What does this fold into?
Amino acid sequence: MKNTEKWALLIEEKRFRDKSDSIKSDGRNPFENDYGRLISSAPIRRLQDKTQVFPLEQSDYIRTRLTHSLEVSYIASSIGQSIENFLIKEKQDLLLEKQGYLSSLLRVAGLVHDLGNPPFGHFGEEAVRKFFKDYFQNNKTSLNDLERADLIYFDGNVQTFRILSKLYYFGDEYGYNLTYSSLASIIKYPSNSLEGNKKPYTEIAKKKFGYFVTETETYKKINDWLK
It folds into this structure.
């Protein structure tokens, strides 16, 4: 596959179901459409109640995950604009009419990158892991090995993928129904919780995991399409 074909695939508007018709004057690209679905939604707004760090200060200013996510979103978008200029003018791997697509995709990726993290950040993740590890040691369960591993190795990024693809909009089986590329941007490790989380790991792809067992088919469809 040529570079032009790869970039065309990555910025294609591929979703699990066709989106509702837009008005003719809607000039947004697919990823700006994704951003619009996200920015005013409850999961994004709830980031304002999660602190990014715990400042040992006497002021009443507390840095939130929402502030952090908006900043990351802008930085990612601005980097995307520079990359687009290079791909269009220097490499000619991206069509001029697709300018703005990549920067908008990265804007979405920056906005959602912390969406599934629990309160207290990595400490919160560790608290969830310890709870389930202790629970499974002291209680019988009908869960299989993979289902237990999902909870023992709980990860905020994996939860983000679940929120985006399933949990939001309970009346829609596809969650936000984001583009495949927007969903793929949050998957850091292409492994389930048994294939990943290897210590010591022999390859970076096995360091952690990227999706819960409940999102296996969703992951496979995205992965197969992007190959």
The two ends are 10 Å apart (CA to CA). The mean pLDDT is 91.
